[in-house]
Amino acid sequence: MRVMRRSYKLAVLIALTVFVTDQVTKALVLKRLALGESIEVLTGFFNIVRWHNTGAAFGMLGGGGFYSVLLIVLSFVAVGVIVYLYKYSDNILTYTALSLIIGGALGNLLDRVRYGEVIDFLDFFVGKYHWYAFNVADSAITVGVVIGVIGYYISEKRPEIIEDEG
């Protein structure tokens, strides 16, 4: 039981760190940049830009209205599912993955509720080819999914221990 409590505290710490970092960085961008304005950080590779995304990943389901409400509802459902999955998490990789995902989901959910859109600001590119702008929450969700997949495959490769009942 002690291991579970320690893991739960770690999960909350990770999720809270992601959430706070996401919200602080977005607040700085909102305070210092106008919509569409950018600051060059690494020439030809990385800018900080203020962008508002009314949709989900890559702008899908954008445009506001019904889709904004749908994305808020789906975000609440996702957070509920993640909280439920903690109950069945049996290793530190899974806890870490779920914590990163829930911290990011809550960060973007708060944006949707407050502004009706998500604030994005990390702009990576090569020449004229830009990746979609994203934020700390998006990064945490992506890293969480990768860690979760790795954790799943590691747990699947563990040998099963079969006890002899005889």
Describe this structure in words.
The protein has 166 residues and is of the alpha+beta class. It has one domain (2-157). It is 59% helix and 14% strand. The protein has helices at 2-32, 66-86, 92-115, 136-157, and strands at 38-42, 46-53, 118-126, 129-130. It has a four-stranded antiparallel beta sheet with strand order 1-2-3-4. Strand 3 and strand 4 (129-130) form a beta hairpin. The longest helix has 31 residues, at 2-32. It is globular and about 45 Å long. The two termini are 30 Å apart. The relative contact order is 0.17. The mean pLDDT is 83.
Query: What order do the SSEs take from the amino end to the carboxyl end, as H and E?
Result: HEEHHEEH
Mean pLDDT: 83
Helix count, per DSSP? 4
What's the number of structural domains? 1
Task: Give the termini separation.
Answer: 30 Å
Radius of gyration of CA atoms, rounded to a whole number: 19 Å
The main sheet orders its strands as: 1-2-3-4
The 3D shape can be described as: globular
Percentage of residues in strands: 5-15%
Structural class assignment: alpha+beta
Contiguous uncertain segments of 5+ residues? none
Concise description?
The chain has 166 residues and is an alpha+beta fold. The chain is built from 4 helices and 4 strands.
